[in-house]
Design a protein that fits this description.
This protein is of the alpha/beta class and 382 residues long. Helix content is 45%, strand content 15%. The protein has 16 helices and 13 strands.
Amino acid sequence: MKNLRIMSVFGTRPEAIKMAPLVQELARRDGIDSLCCVTAQHRQMLDSVLEVFHVTPDYDLDIMTPRQTLSTITSKCLLGMEEAIKAMEPDMILVHGDTSTTFAGALAAFYHQIPVGHVEAGLRTYDKYSPYPEEMNRKLVSSIADLYFCPTVANRDNLSREAIEKGVFVTGNTVIDALKTTVRAEYVFATPELNDLDYVNRKVCLVTCHRRENYGKPMEQIMLALRQIAEENQDVDLVYPVHLSPVVQEAAEKYLRGAPRVHLIAPLPADEMHNLMARSYMVLTDSGGLQEEAPALGKPVLVLRRETERPEAVAAGTVRLAGVVQDDIVTMATRLIRDKAAYETMAKAVNPYGDGNACARIADAILWHFGRGEAPAPFGGD
């Protein structure tokens, strides 16, 4: 019987972290040829993840340009995918989450009448402009996909409310699979500054801030809050791997350069980021992925956004919405820094996002779709 040609498509650092373990799992399966197409929507940050996970793309669109726009990303992805599909002739295309690469990859597959599997399906805020453009990207992909790999039951239920019932699987999130391979107690950082921090006697807080909907006034408020937190808490170090976006770089330099105990460093490879998170006191972030990763490591998270499409950890108590107003962020962070009971209430290893077997479930579901195996049991047993 001819092997199934399953092509995974991704282009950003967060996508790569979550898709690399799946590319590897598919490669281990009998009956599957695992193909990898990257768009390089984020070139440098993508490459670092590929190196960590030892993934070599079969096709590289290399679309990134300085100060690229959503329109240029989407159009270049769509045209590049045309060539990749013709060259690799996949039986199914897998896309992840909610990026412009995700939308363009799914649309290209549809134009060629190739089935689409949507990894990390069913996340919703129900505000099409927040997160922007991610919320609309994932909704559009939901209209195209044939298989839906939902991290949680809540994600499945979101799809059900949209009358999407067929081909839906609750798998857990593949990022938990990735963490199993990267976090190690004996890990030594390649970034020397990180080895010099005192993770035992000081409160080292990991910070990220990069989302488009936070550009402008929200980002200014976030940066001012971070500076105030550092200035008012001498036992705190803030470590901020600054995103390569020129907008983010300019804001970090303007508001945080020279602030006490604020470490502005270059973006980190996936393994460095995961191990830094594992040793940190807490996380302040507007990232989606860190909202899933930090609870798996028992780290409290303050989300620097107005809403989240990942409510499971909020319900579990390990994640809280801090918003984008300086005073609110400072108040919530200060309480966790100074109130041991408040901190310990959040710092519990509640992991609603997976058990490290999401990739295996996805591979099983793909084989089932093509009549070559049994459907997987869902994550959580529901």
